[in-house]
Amino acid sequence: MDCAQFEELISDYLECGLARAERRGFAEHLLACRDCHALFNDVREMMAVCHVLKESQMREIAGFVEFKQRIIDATSAGEMLSCSTLDALISDYFDGLIDSSYEFLFSKHFAACASCRRLVEGVRESIEESETVEVPEELYYRIIAATSGARR
Fold it and tell me: What residue numbers bound the domain in which 48 lies?
């Protein structure tokens, strides 16, 4: 193997990508040629540095992604929709008049805020209750009398 072939195969050798015969020829040249041996050591060191930098960058990217998700979580749902905003919009929510983006924020806020969840459950229960009130019979007569002028 000559020096030019050796240089072409350094990275393949370091990444265990050579066939057995090529690996043997590479190792023989490595031991026989002082210049190629020095080049091999330099390339090996640089590859090690690159791997360390890559791992560092991957950790940094992972940290950034986690940080970004924490920002998104903190500025949406439970945080962005305050309890007072929820209270102001609750009747629209139950009437089905609320914007779909707020509906999502409502459900996220309910999951995070126990007091608002109790409020919404209470309103929902009061809406679902079908309470019948008996109207006194004399009330009908009083309404008719008041509206037809029969009382005069």
Answer: 3-58
Q: Rounded to two decimals, what is the model's pTM?
A: 0.38
Residue 106 to residues 91, 113, 115, 119: CA-CA distances in angstroms?
Answer: 12, 10, 13, 12
Cβ atoms of 81 and 105 within 8 Å: the answer is yes
- Over residues 100-133, the pLDDT tens digits come to 767 777 777 777 888 888 888 888 888 777 667 7
Cβ pair 103, 93 in contact under 8 A? yes
Angle 20-32/34-74 helices, nearest 10 degrees? 120
Q: Is residue 84 part of a domain?
A: yes
Number of domains in the chain: 2
- CA 113 to chain CA centroid, Å, is 19
8 A C-beta contact, residue 5 and residue 38? no
Indicate whether 84 and 135 sit together in one domain.
Answer: yes
